[in-house]
Amino acid sequence: MSSKVILLYGSGPNVGASILKKFAGNGWKTVAVVRTMKDEYKDSADLVLQANFADAQAIQKVYDQVQRELGTPNCVVYNAYALESFSSDATKPFAAAPESFAQDLAVNTVGCYAAASSAASGFAKLSSGPKVFIFTGNGFPTSIVPEQPGLGGGKAASAYLIETAANALKEDSHWYFADERLPSGKPVMTDLSGEAHGDAYYELATGKEQGPWNYTFVKGKGYKKCEDTMDHAYTPIADLFANLKK
């Protein structure tokens, strides 16, 4: 029986490394995709690749290479992010250059879309085993942070993509926007626990059914339903037009 494969875009020394360690410890083949190749990353996974996460074609090429060398990934994690558009003044949310905003969206949303697209195609070819896509999110889809339009807007747009997939594809695969929280339910911001991510992501990757798409979790406790999370109406276009006739 061949080993299951996890492909992680955006590996680093904390969250990414902890996720890969957790999966490797449970017999999975691991793939780390890094923005910049460094010596400390070279032995962090069974296969370590470099890619520009702002380049959708590069993301697809990585996926194709993983398929050739290790097989179709059972779990794809998009952990990459960009924060180029930043304003030091909360009253000036459009202070950053549009080019910086576009660069953020290229990584935070278009990159996610590219990774999700290739993952969905791969999942359709797997006859059995886990088929899970996890996007590393945060509290921005429900909290407005005016100083970070590219990160907040990008995370919110990707949350839309994940919720869409969790509804449209739930019979065949599972899709999650994973968001670590404090015990109070508030966002952890930059105080992320790599260990908590590893535990939560492995639980999601081995789950039998689609759980809450907006998976808010607390270190040492697992899933926690937070008051600021919500589901949206899943309405295909045909249903939208049908509603107009009623």
Q: Number of helical runs?
A: 6
Percent of residues in helices: 25-40%
Q: What characteristic shape results from the CA principal axes? A: globular
Order of helices and strands: EHEEHEHEHEHEEH
Task: Average the pLDDT over all residues and give the rounded result.
Answer: 94
CA-CA gap between termini: 53 Å
> Low-confidence parts, pLDDT < 50 over ≥5 residues?
none
Radius of gyration: 18 Å
Describe the structure.
With 246 residues, the protein is α/β, with parallel strands linked by helices. It has helices at residues 15-24, 56-69, 98-123, 149-168, 194-205, 237-244, and strands at residues 5-9, 29-34, 47-50, 75-78, 132-136, 174-181, 214-218, 222-223. An 8-stranded mixed β-sheet has the order 3-2-1-4-5-6-7-8, sandwiched between helices. α3 packs parallel to α4. 45% of the residues are buried.
